[in-house]
């Protein structure tokens, strides 16, 4: 049994009531046991899993393959309501939709659906709040409330997939609302995913296990972000997954990163990148280096040059993020000319770089803003 991660100990959520048990919390064997405990035949577990993961059923009335007398008992015992919509807000011609969810204990979390010409991406939360305390991040400033359960993570995706299936989320290039399909999932919403390691990994298994055990999504379409919890990155490499790792670096030098990403006082830039390169080697996946460009803080040309020197000749791609400022914050996006020079410096070192498509600014699009507004 692996030892608990330092992140799980240092940033443990307060004790309180646990989320109700849900089908998505359980492995295939555990589901059969749970169904038997409810007085049903074990094969009902596969039927229930197929309804949830494959058919995206929204309620027992649709379970035509399960006897009517068994539906209510199975629904109550294994498919309780985990979250309810507080509100949806949309922009970009309804190609971006952010949802504020209320969990069973009143805690608020967020998810975002984003439709592009060639894909639909969903950004999901793994914690309510965050314990990493990055000063430019709305979620980080709110602090950590608690970890989400495996099922609370999975249900965000299930809800997004149901919405797409029902034609509620815009239209694709052909104009047919129901033709789009969720293809990419990024653990870049509220929280530090690797500080909720066990539940995040279990959620990834549910997302990628073939039917009826899971949604059957591709591991290569999943990205897990981290501020740099080195022991957890090493542990992730041992999982032998092919998910992409995204490292939220935000500064190439320890002096500044100690301030912008406080966990850097524990694991320095060199240690974080060494762990990332090992993950790239073992997974065969290129590392995404996330870098929020902040005016006059981390957007200097010399820092771009240093970043380029650190990343060149490695499997890395830099994702520059124009900062989506939070109300009242001193932190704001870089000037366009500084952004262009930063890109130029990285390219001089042969480092691939893109500037993230900024979406959702008019709907409190930055992580944690909608929850902070309540």
Automatic annotation (TrEMBL):
Family: Belongs to the radical SAM superfamily. RlmN family.
Catalytic residue list: 110 (proton acceptor), 367 (s-methylcysteine intermediate)
Protein name: Probable dual-specificity RNA methyltransferase RlmN
Cross-referenced InterPro entries: Aldolase_TIM (IPR013785), Elp3/MiaA/NifB-like_rSAM (IPR006638), Methyltransferase_A (IPR040072), RlmN_N (IPR048641), RNA_MTrfase_RlmN (IPR027492), rRNA_lsu_MTrfase_RlmN/Cfr (IPR004383), rSAM (IPR007197), rSAM_sf (IPR058240)
Localization per record: Cytoplasm
Additional detail: Reaction proceeds by a ping-pong mechanism involving intermediate methylation of a conserved cysteine residue.
Pfam name, any one: Radical_SAM
Purpose: Specifically methylates position 2 of adenine 2503 in 23S rRNA and position 2 of adenine 37 in tRNAs.
UniProt domain Radical SAM core: residue ranges: 116-362
Textual note on the cofactor: Binds 1 [4Fe-4S] cluster. The cluster is coordinated with 3 cysteines and an exchangeable S-adenosyl-L-methionine.
Residues where S-adenosyl-L-methionine binds: 191-192, 225, 248-250, 324
GO BP annotations listed: methylation
Domain of life: Bacteria
Binding site for [4Fe-4S] cluster: 130, 134, 137
Cofactor dependency: [4Fe-4S] cluster
Keywords in alphabetical order: 4Fe-4S, Cytoplasm, Disulfide bond, Iron, Iron-sulfur, Metal-binding, Methyltransferase, rRNA processing, S-adenosyl-L-methionine, Transferase, tRNA processing
Record carries keyword Ligase: no
EC number: 2.1.1.192
Region spans: Disordered: 1-20
């Amino acid at each position: 049994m692996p030892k608990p991660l330092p992140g799980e100990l240092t940033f443990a959520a307060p004790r309180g009531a646990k989320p109700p048990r849900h089908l998505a919390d359980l492995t295939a064997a555990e589901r059969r046991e749970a169904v038997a405990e409810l007085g049903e035949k074990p094969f009902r577990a596969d039927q229930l899993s197929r309804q949830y993961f494959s058919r995206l059923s929204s309620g027992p009335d649709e379970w035509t393959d399960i006897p009517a007398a068994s539906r209510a008992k199975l629904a109550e015992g294994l498919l309780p309501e985990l979250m309810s919509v507080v509100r949806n807000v949309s922009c970009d011609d309804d190609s971006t939709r952010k949802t504020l969810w209320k969990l069973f204990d009143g805690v608020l979390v967020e998810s975002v659906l984003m439709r592009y010409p060639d894909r639909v991406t969903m950004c999901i939360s793994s914690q309510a709040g965050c314990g990493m305390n990055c000063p430019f991040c709305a979620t980080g400033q709110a602090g950590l409330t608690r970890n989400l359960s495996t099922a609370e993570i999975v249900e965000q995706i299930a809800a997004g997939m149901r919405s797409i299936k029902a034609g509620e989320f815009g239209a694709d290039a052909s104009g047919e609302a129901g033709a789009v399909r969720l293809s990419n999932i990024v653990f870049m919403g509220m929280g530090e995913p690797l500080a909720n390691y066990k539940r995040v990994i279990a959620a990834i298994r549910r997302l990628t296990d073939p039917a009826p055990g899971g949604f059957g999504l591709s591991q290569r379409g999943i990205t897990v972000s981290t501020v740099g919890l080195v022991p957890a990155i090493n542990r992730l490499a041992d999982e032998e997954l092919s998910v992409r790792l995204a490292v939220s670096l935000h500064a190439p030098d320890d002096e500044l990163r100690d301030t912008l990403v406080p966990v850097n006082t524990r694991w320095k830039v060199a240690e974080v990148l060494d762990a990332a390169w090992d993950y790239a080697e073992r997974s065969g996946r290129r590392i995404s280096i996330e870098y929020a460009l902040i005016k006059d803080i981390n957007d200097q040309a010399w820092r771009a040059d240093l970043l380029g020197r650190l990343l060149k000749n490695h499997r890395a791609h830099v994702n520059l993020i124009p900062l989506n400022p939070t109300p009242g914050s001193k932190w704001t996006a870089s000037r366009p000319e500084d952004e262009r020079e930063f890109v130029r410096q990285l390219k001089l070192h042969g480092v691939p770089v893109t500037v993230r498509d900024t979406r959702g600014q008019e709907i409190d699009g930055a992580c944690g803003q909608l929850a902070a507004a309540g």
